[in-house]
From TrEMBL:
Domain Phosphotyrosine protein phosphatase I: from-to ranges: 5-145
UniProt-listed PANTHER family: LOW MOLECULAR WEIGHT PROTEIN TYROSINE PHOSPHATASE, LOW MOLECULAR WEIGHT PROTEIN-TYROSINE-PHOSPHATASE ETP-RELATED
Family label: Belongs to the low molecular weight phosphotyrosine protein phosphatase family.
Record's keyword annotation contains Lyase: no
Pfam family of the protein (one): LMWPc
Record bears the keyword Ion transport: no
Protein name: Low molecular weight protein arginine phosphatase
Organism: Variimorphobacter saccharofermentans
Any GO MF annotation of the entry: protein tyrosine phosphatase activity
Active site, UniProt feature: C11 (nucleophile), R17, D119 (proton donor)
Alphabetically ordered keywords of this record: Hydrolase, Protein phosphatase
Length: 150
């Protein structure tokens, strides 16, 4: 039995970092029963994945089909959920908005690193690629750590 039955990656708008992390995770962890989602903290209306993020994912033979941004909701979270945010401020915001949340970390914190995953929004394709490379490393560490904890 997996310690966490649900993993939620959270970023600001759910159009770049968290969907990329979700796609990377799904590609790395194909045997787990764990449900993997991505959500945003500021989702005013449904949007597709950022075109530059999509280009970078395709370059790495990954895609996230029919992605539409979704905001984090109380109904997404239960006792078997782990939440990984991209920044410390997102983690604090979730703890403020959802006081019952127990298992929440920044993705770097969970992977044993310090700092935030910088939002490439508005940046160049190279900046999106750099973000992808960082997320790929962090998500790989996340997969190993989740598998160790079972």
């Amino acid at each position: 039995m997996e310690k966490y039955q649900k993993l939620i990656f959270v970023c600001t708008g759910n159009t770049c970092r968290s969907p990329m992390a979700e796609a990377i995770y799904r590609n790395l962890e194909k045997v787990s029963e764990r449900k993997v989602l991505s959500r945003g903290l500021v989702v005013l209306f449904p949007e597709p994945i950022n075109p530059k993020a999509e280009v970078v994912l395709k370059k790495h033979d990954l895609e996230i089909m029919n992605h539409v941004s979704k905001g984090l909701k109380t109904s997404d979270i239960d006792d078997n959920t782990i939440i990984l945010t991209m920044t410390e401020s997102q983690k604090r915001k979730i703890l403020e908005l959802y006081p019952g949340v127990k298992d929440i970390y920044t993705i770097k914190e969970y992977a044993g690193e310090i700092g935030d995953v910088v939002d490439p929004y508005g940046g160049t394709l190279v900046e999106y690629e750099e973000c992808y490379i960082e997320l790929a490393r962090l998500v790989k560490k996340t997969v190993y750590k989740l598998n160790e904890e079972e």
